[in-house]
Amino acid sequence: QSALTQPASVSGSPGQSITISCIGTSSDVGGYNYVSWYQQHPGKAPKLMIYDVSNRPSGVSNRFSGSKSGNTASLTISGLQAEDEADYYCSSYTSSSIVIFGGGTKLTVL
Amino acid sequence: EVQLLESGGGLVQPGESLRLSCAASGFTFSSYAMSWVRQAPGKGLEWVSSISGSGGSTYYADSVKGRFTISRDNSKNTLYLQMNSLRAEDTAVYYCAKVLLRGYYYRGFDYWGQGTLVTVSS
Q1: Which band of pLDDT confidence, cut at 50, 70 and 90, is reported for residue B59?
Q2: Which terminal residue of chain A, N or C, has fewer Cβ atoms less than 10 Å from its own Cβ?
Q3: Strand ranges in A1-110 using DSSP code E only, listed in sequence order
Q4: For the purposes of burial, counting CB atoms within 10 Å of the CB of B42, is it exposed (0-12), middle (13-18) or buried (19 or more)?
Q5: Closest CA of chain A from B117, distance in Å
Q6: How far is B98 from chain A (nearest CA, A)?
Q7: pLDDT tens-place string over residues B65-80
Q8: Contacts of B41 in chain A (CB under 8 A)
Q9: Helix, strand or coil for residue A102?
Q10: Does the distance separating the beta carbons of A104 and B100 come in below 8 Å?
């Protein structure tokens, strides 16, 4: 099972909105509403930001939102802040009963 | 407060074995599936394995199937990963992670340990 496809990097200025895409197949992203997104700062453990495509765990800012269309999931961060600068990973359940991650996207806040 | 504390990492030679442990606290351990996720130096996240709350169901990535064994001791609130026939490509920080929702090992990992580094090198 190949990893999900994410852009290597995205950037935005404070206050702007950015979107990170996560491209899979009908056997993973497109076939199930079980896409999650994680934020990881350097040297730290990942943090769950979105689960089941668009749900936010308790405590996660509503500036973070998720969506899905076909085989592509997206994470949107609005009102970009300096502390949002981090690596972001998507993951999905697959028809093989395994979990796969995307390659990760480095977000730079200009 | 949920806490996950991994241990057991270290430097081993190719072909050797290692067992990782993850001590959990702050939640009803036996009610939740648990997982191991690894991250090679400078690389992305890779799901390794998951186990149901009872321990009766296990799941593995193809890259470790047949070499790694996940298990748990609910009486000790501890998760394990037995790693055999280790290869250089197994070098990574290994995180244990708690699943968000009871009964579903794949719908998000809401708590992570600090990770333990496994280095496979001669």
Answers
A1: very high
A2: C
A3: 9-12, 18-23, 35-40, 47-50, 64-69, 72-77, 86-93, 99-101, 105-109
A4: exposed
A5: 12
A6: 11
A7: 999 999 999 999 999 9
A8: none
A9: strand
A10: no
